[in-house]
Amino acid sequence: MLGKGAITYISHRNSKRLATFFALMLLITTAWGAMGSPASAQSVARFALRSTVATTVPTDLLEQPSAKGTSLAQLPVNAKSVVLGGPFNEGWYWVSYNAATGYIDGNDLVLVDANWKPIDNSTPTPAPSATPVATATPGAGATPETIPTPSTAGDYTGLWLGELTTGGNVRVGPGLDQKILKGWGAGRRVLLYQSAVDSKGGLWYRVSDPPEEPQWVHSSLISKVAPVQFDGPKYQGRWVAVNLTQQIATAYQDGTPVKVTLASTGTVRTLPNGTKEDLRTNVGVWKIYWRLPSQEMKGGSIENGDFYDLKDVPFVQYFYQSGEALHGTYWHDDFGRPHSHGCVNLSTPMAGWFYDFGKIGTIVWVHY
């Protein structure tokens, strides 16, 4: 489950409390919306609460509903987010983007519905002189220009952890002519599984691994962070390592990594009263003791602002008695950063792979 503590289920009383909570939030949202200028609010499209919107131009996610607000993230064209409130201050909307919340000018947004079509936004191709040799293998002293050797399934030699230095598009293949899947903002962590050069000499990185769908990002958007750390033959047979420093989960057969993926583990939250709540995933050697193909997960508190009630969380494998588990995640796409209440968040396809790999008694070693 997402959080530490006993597993809970929906009751009639909790349903009433949840309904009251959302009713209160709706009243607050309406009241806040009334604070803006009615005339200016009519100049931008009105977006309903919980609707999905996309950016029409590169823009910033801001801390305050004002052009002078501090930037929290850079959003590329076609970046999708969910409306949490608004409009405020002449048409600003409070949105959730990749697990971050902030404000975007409504003039830069469009509703994502059946008629929505992504805007064609090409990523600039670096000059030919900047194209590295495609067969180079990174080592401990590799420069940012070094390209990983193209990998095959189960071979993670030369695997690197990277980070987007600016927002950009994720495509289904290496080339500007390939379909755009989504947009990622600056700071999004990636694993560089493979490199390829397109017909125009542009360098691309594959940032997903089967059973995930192919996802490629142009090299001009990415900087290398560090080589991925592997643990060697620590245990026999099948076991899983969760590296909290790199936010990476690795499945091993004896000492050989057979699947490597980004994860999001437990974080440290600041409560409304200013105190810190330590939700970091517990370090140690544990064993999977309970598995479910899907489960409702519920926890946190309205008072602390972290209440959640998630239906059909997929591929759940509990390994720590407080409720920490490996599981799939459909509510955010920001793997590589801590986000959870203690669990190890994986993409849903990867969680399915780890579910098939594991069993009751499989070792899960959590370490820094």
Task: Summarize the entry for a quick read.
With 368 residues, this protein is mainly β. The protein has three helices and 26 strands. The chain has helices at residues 12-35, 38-41, 348-357; strands spanning 52-55, 59-62, 71-75, 80-88, 92-97, 100-105, 109-111, 160-164, 168-171, 180-184, 189-192, 194-197, 203-206, 216-218, 222-227, 238-243, 248-253, 256-262, 268-270, 276-278, 284-287, 290-299, 308-320, 324-329, 344-347, 363-367.
Structural summary, described in words:
By secondary structure, the protein is mainly beta. Helices cover 10% and strands 38% of the residues. The chain is built from 3 helices and 26 strands. The strands form 8 sheets. A 5-stranded antiparallel β-sheet has the order 6-5-4-1-7. It has a 5-stranded mixed β-sheet with strand order 18-17-16-26-21, with helices on one face. A hairpin with a 4-residue loop joins strand 16 and strand 17 (248-253). The two termini are 21 Å apart. Residues 5-43 and 122-146 have low confidence and may be disordered.
- By DSSP (H or I, 4+ residues per run), the number of helices equals 3
Major beta-sheet overview: 5 strands, antiparallel
Beta-strand percent range? 35-45%
The side-by-side strand order for the widest beta sheet comes to 6-5-4-1-7
**Overall helicity:** 10-25%
Distance between the termini: 21 Å
Shape: globular
Unreliable stretches: 5-43, 122-146
Main structural class: mainly beta
Query: If you average the pLDDT, what whole number results?
Result: 81
- By oligomeric state, this entry counts as single chain
Provide the gyration radius in Å.
22 Å
- Helix and strand succession? HHEEEEEEEEEEEEEEEEEEEEEEEEEHE
